[in-house]
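Forum: Protein Structure Q&A
Topic: Joint prediction for protein chains with partners

I've read a bunch of threads here and the consensus seems to be that you should model interacting components together rather than docking separate models afterwards. I'd like to see that in practice. Below is the full input, 728 residues plus whatever partners are listed. Could one of the regulars post the assembled result?
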Amino acid sequence: MSPATRARAMRARGTLWGMVAETFYVFALSSFCVALAALVYVLAG
Amino acid sequence: MIVKPTIDDAKLILSYTGKVVIGVSLLLLVPMATAAAAAEWDALVYFTLSLGLSLSSGFLLSIAGVTDRRPTWMHGMVTGAFSWIVVMAIAALPYWFSGNYLSYLDAMFDIMSGFTTTGLVLIQDLDHVAVSLNMWRHLLTFVGGQGMIVLALTFLVKDSGGGYKLYVGEGKDERLFPSVFHTAKAIWKISLIYLAVGTLALWGAGLAIGLPLAPAFLHALWIYMAAWSTGGFAPMSQNLLYYHSGLYETITVVFFILGSFNFALHHAVWSGDRKEVYRNIETVSFATTMSALTLVTAWGLMKLHVYPDFMALVRKAFYQLASAHTTTGFMSVYPRQLAIEWGDLALGAMILAMLIGGSACSTAGGFKGLRMGMLWKAIVQETRKMLKPSSAVFSQRFHYHGERSLTEAQVRSAALIVLMYMAIFLFATMAGTAAGYPFLDAAFESASVTGNVGFSIGVTQAGMPSFLKVVYIFNMWAGRLEFMAVLAFFAFVGSFFRRKTA
Amino acid sequence: MKRPWIALLLILAGALASLPAIAETASVGTKDLIEKPRDFDGKTIVFLGEAIGDAMRRGDHAWVNLLDANAAMGIWLPAADSDAIKDWGSYQAKGDVVRIRGVFHRACPEHGGDMDIHAESLEIIARGKASAHPVNQVRLVLMPLSLALASALFLAWKRREKSGKAATEAWNHWEGRRERR
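Posted by a regular:
Agreed with the consensus. Here's the joint model:
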């Protein structure tokens, strides 16, 4: 494997894991908000 | 004191504007190809005609602007504001030719709404619109999210010295790389990689919810473009309600929240700094206001018993709020339902969410999380000052790609911009009430145009007064460019008419 | 003497039979449904509109969106019924005009709070037809002309750019002289 290929592979891996991390964050935040809505639903419902 | 501009200054601005116009004109090749593929020959003719006319205007501007002057900050700012106006007028040609608009003003309104990723529409009979015209609508909103000048910088403007000044003029100021050319390229790379992922995800979801193969693909591409750019256009008049699908809505939530993140954040996370995603002042600010406003919206809706069960509450309250806070504007309710059923408390929370908006240097609008975070830190600092002995010295820190200390200049600029947002928000609210709409409706629609959101409570319709359309166009434009460029533009134009002072 | 009596009976029966029929065939528009949703919530109504987009099948049921003069409404109906609709509204065609009878939900508990109608019966009122979009002849003529103009201006721009430097210098020189005066 040439250094250039290796660098490209590393960047691709970084991109992939970056996207996973970002998506995970979005899901975590959304779940938290949904949990808050559930709290309101129980308290007010 | 502004130095009286010379003809050369104007020429330089015309020349850069010409390049932006040429860049946007070349985008017409995409709907042209779509029209050819879908056998929409009449559309192919008017798109080609539009290409000829808009390229001609771009070349004319370039001819008028031949100069060897080097750009300064002033040129960058004025070009930013001016090119958006010129492009609005020129890109409206195919809209007007399509016959789906009642006036040229309506067509320009939709262009400004698309480019600023607002998403309000005045288009008529959207459900029977040509495939190629839908492609043009969504392509515009997608490109508008990254910025037209970012587009021009990537392909047309070779001079990198002046490039950064143009880039800032469009309301973005993050340098992902030292060179603005590489920064523009990195922005496109991030958007296009997510374009591939998002379109595939929505295509799969579209097939799962029963759309045929080809429409599922087109809907996926368009909805992704509108979600990522936080634009909020949709190919059908019902917007997201057309799909009747929780799955489809969930995927759009992921992409419009991702789209509302700072490009510098994406870049940092993709380069390996994954902790930044939960430490960054902007994501922290967004998470805080989003959670708080979810509570308020849910409370407001529960109080009035608007939704019968928990699932409905989540799918309506959380979805609309997330869509408003990221300034997307996808709706899974009818506009008038907000006015009739939602009640003042929930609408108040929505207005606040729309004004706060997403992250700086993203596709989103509003005050931006960065400024909210900075102002919050400044308030905390002031409070601490009052409680501690006067001899104590504080330095307030915040996390934004590393720890930084908060400076007076940052707070001042953040406060000024928030103040200006509030000013034009109140201005358009007043214009709305002057046109005879109820105060809350006028405020809601005004927040929606000022924050480039695209939620409607039913005010934005082809029948609304023309002056209100113009006010809304102004607010979308000024809000998207974050005022500096707009102020520079007016100062520049004004100084031409001013008498020379010694 | 029997005849008028029978006639009277017939009229009475007819009136009785047609009373609910009149109430139910008067279709409700999206404008009323959206503006006064609580008036119709949970009631059986008749709705009339053009089928647009595509049917979206979900198991043994399907979603169909019907457009009236004001807005489109989502209709939930047995998948077999949706097969009766042949033409769907798009750029290429006007869709079938469909009349459905069903229960209106202001915020459907079954479908995540969507405003919808669960149809019980469906009737095709009019078949759709292809929409013609003839090419505008004036634009067809202007099209090559505009492209020719663009090419000419492009060449002019490139030539101007070459000689531009000289022109700008001359201009600056002239401006400078005027400024000094």
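The two ends of chain C are 118 Å apart (CA to CA).
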